[in-house]
Amino acid sequence: LVDQNEFATTLAGSPELARTCYAVFVCGTPNETDIATGPWKHTDVARAKKLLAEAGYTDQKLVLLDPADQPDIHLIAQLTADALRRAGVNVDLQTMDWSTSITRRNVREAPAANPQGWDLAFTLWGGFSLSSPLTNTPLVTSCDGKNLYGWPCDEEIEKLRSAYFSEVSPEKRMQLIEQLQTRYYQVVPYINTGIFQRVVGYRSVLSGVQKTMYPVMWNIEKKGQ
User: 10 Å Cβ neighbour count for 192?
Assistant: First the structure.
C-alpha cells in the first residue's frame, strides 16, 4: 500500500534527494540485501482491500497521530492517511504537537478502551542507526513490553538478532541478515516509507564542517566575513 517513491520524493522535495529502499538495514550499506522484498515493491490497493477484509476489518476507525509541528513527520502521517483511505480504511487523523504525540504513543490501550489510544504513530530515523541489527531499535521485538512503542513481539527475530551479536564470520553474519529481512517481511514490526536526504547549507567562510547525520558544532572555524 505504501508507495515509497511518492513518500520519499514528497519528503525530499526533489527526486534527486529521494530513494526507494526496501532493504531493512538500509540501501547503500554493507547489510543491504534484496531478499524477500519483491511483493512489497508494487502498490496494490485492490490487494490491500482484500487483505483487510480477510483480516476482519469492518470500517473501524484507525487513529493516526499527526504531529503538525514536525514538518517531515507530518507529511508522512498525511500521506499514510491518504493511502489508507484509498484502501477503504476509516481514518481518524488526529493533529497535535510533537510533545503530545510522544506522550500519547506510550498509551498501550486501544482507542476503543482509552480516548488517548492510537493505532499508527510516525517518526524519522537516521539510516546509519538502522543499518545494523545492533542499532536498529524498531527491529527489537523482545515481547517484554520494554521495546519501542507499538511493542512488537516476535521471538524468531530476537533469536536471529542474538545469533548475529555472537557471530564473527562475515559470511554467516550476512546469512543472518538475510534471515532477519525475510522474517521482517513476514511479521512487519514497522514500515519503512523510503529514504530522503536533507539539504545542508552554510557560508563559504566556515571551514571544518563535519559530514555527519546531525549538526555538530565542534571543529568549525570562521575565516573572513
Answer: 20
